[in-house]
Amino acid sequence: MMNEQRESQFYIPARTSLDPEGATRLKHGDTFGVFDRAGDILGFKGNTDGIYHRDTRHLSHCELRINGARPIVLTSAMQTDNSGFVADLTNPDFYAGGEITLAKDNIHLQRLKFAWNNAVYERITIQNYDRKAHPLRLSFTFGADYADLFEARGQVRSRRGHMQAARVENASVTLRYDGLDDVARETRLSFHPRPDHLDEMSAAYTVEVAPGGECKILLCVDCAPQHRTGIFDDAAFLAAMIGARRSLTQALKRAPRIASSETVFDDILSRAHADLAMLTTETPEGPYPYAGIPWFSTPFGRDALITALFTLWYDPQIARGVLRFLARRQATGVDAFQDAEPGKILHELRYCEMAATREVPFGTYYGSVDSTPLFIMLAGAYFDRTHDMDTLRDLWPAIEKALGWMMEFGDADGDGFIEYARQRDTGLANQGWKDSHDSISHADGRLADGPIALVEVQAYAYGAWLAAARIGAALNAPSAAACAARARRLKDRFEEAFWLEDLGVYALALDGDKQPLRVVSSNAGHALTTGIADPERAARMASRLLQPDMFSGWGIRTLSADAARYNPMSYHNGSVWPHDNAMIALGLARYGQVEAVMKIFEALTAAAGFLPLDRLPELFCGFERARRTGPTGYPVACAPQAWAAAAPIALVAAGIGLDFEDGRARLVGQARLPDFLDHLSIDGIRDRAGTFSVLVDQNGARIARDAA
């Protein structure tokens, strides 16, 4: 137990639920905000809400009051395209001398919030529906703790930088923190019109709204004020709102239009589309989906690579941006603290003070064993999807370095398998997608000793060798044939070492003694995705993964309910992850296991229909599906989460069998829709041959090309 506690230094404690039903999340670029239903940030201890910029909380408290009281929430919601958040509020009863001076529900306050260019903007509209005028005092209290994101989510620091005195100027207040990393972080709160009262922690207006009249107050919380000039007024607010909407519209336009016979499913896809647009940040290398809000709103290698794979048929520009971004940040040397080795692909990139001072290793961290083969896999899939030889030619040196890492550092003992073992105990103990400290265990519950060869990583490596062979052949690279030969050898070795005949599945992993971990897990389902699995064994896997101990009714669990470490409320030992299920579904489709694909498709769609905003979160609990109730939420799950948002998009491709070769679309296998859909159409997909649509019903699918 002591060892397990030590290993869990990056565990995210659940002091309070992230409350996906009540919390609101906004994001643009490197800035995101989390607010309660009223649009406030309540600064109580343990609350993780706030406005964060580049992994630091720039505003930890901001509360609106009317006549000293919190307004009553009528309703609040994200706009359907994630362009903003709207909360409708009203006044409580106000008394003087024992009599009501202003009855409830006479004053309407509407708060509109959106994020744009390092800032969160807000417009508060106050309307009077009473028959007489009322003097009102609208007040804000605010503050910034400049908590590092790791600190906000639970890590304790022995020392911090210094808060500076706030600067009050006309209609703005600037808060400042000088970090231990010698970076000055500032937050400017700008109001329009100028408040009647303004100091370093509060602002207040006294307004009198005529019957039927209204007034407006504007607020901008700017997390990079040193880069912005000009006066904050109505014109500045309007320009920001237009810029934010225009940017979002352009992102949404890149993807094709999907419509079906079922409105709820259309809503789920619309939410997924909007979430991906919000999470995707424009970088110099192209669009890059940040992993999730709140804890992972930053570039992650594995998450972005899988998200790009899921959305490749849908928006190949995401894959191009991810590949170019990661190639530029590929490790060039050995750094034990950051688990870096030459050729390795990034796990995580952080900009916060704790990363800069190396209190945590995640500034530029490479502790994932699967990002490197997934990088090559995605490059091969991008090649098949687009035939974009210019991009592949530019990427080829990075691909060769990644292959070099797989041969030398990834397979340090030369047995043909990719293994991981962190270089220092400051890094992640487990370095696959199930990276919690207790996620890789033997059948009796003992945690496995490393180096560990995960089942899914061998499948990704197989896919990587094949991808490198295809790209290399197209570029006339002399290594192409050797890559294909390595893939063949790996496939033979994999079957011999990982298959568990009595359990009917592939082992979760091999431990440091090359002993299989005889545990039934979802990881084994990823072996189907790249084709490394024997077809007969793939069919047995399909059956095994859908048995009651693995299939909750809402999806495939991460771990069998019969396993020693099973806990449906755990992060990785019995929960259900949408992206995990989507990856398995793509593999099942590859092997023609259509009925199994449909079962996963229906389960995740049903789950999303029960969840707030029709949104699939990072994960939910693995409890068995019950009638008339939805899945049980996980208290600190991120929502939105990029690869979860991409899961329904991947399921559509798995169901209809949409594939690409030499940059041209084709339909493979048996196209099917789940029973709840009669038909589905996808319009505006582009490939090398032009624009086309896919039309699907219960009898099959066909491609319809637009006229030239």
Salient structural properties:
about 700 residues; alpha+beta; Glycosyltransferase; 8-stranded antiparallel beta sheet; 4-stranded antiparallel beta sheet; globular; disordered N terminus
Care to describe what's here?
- The protein is α+β, with helices and mostly antiparallel strands and 708 residues long.
- The protein folds into 2 domains: 248 residues, Glycoside hydrolase, family 65, N-terminal domain (Beta-galactosidase, Chain A, domain 5), CATH 2.70.98; 451 residues, Glycosyltransferase (Alpha/alpha barrel), CATH 1.50.10.
- It is built from 15 helices and 32 strands.
- An 8-stranded antiparallel β-sheet has the order 6-7-10-11-18-15-14-13, with helices on one face. It has a 4-stranded antiparallel β-sheet with strand order 1-2-3-4, with no helix packed on it.
- A hairpin with a 2-residue loop joins strand 28 and strand 29.
- Helix 5 packs parallel to helix 15, helix 8 packs across helix 10 and helix 13 runs antiparallel to helix 14.
- The chain is globular, with a radius of gyration of 26 Å.
- The protein starts with a helix and ends with a strand.
- The N terminus is likely disordered.
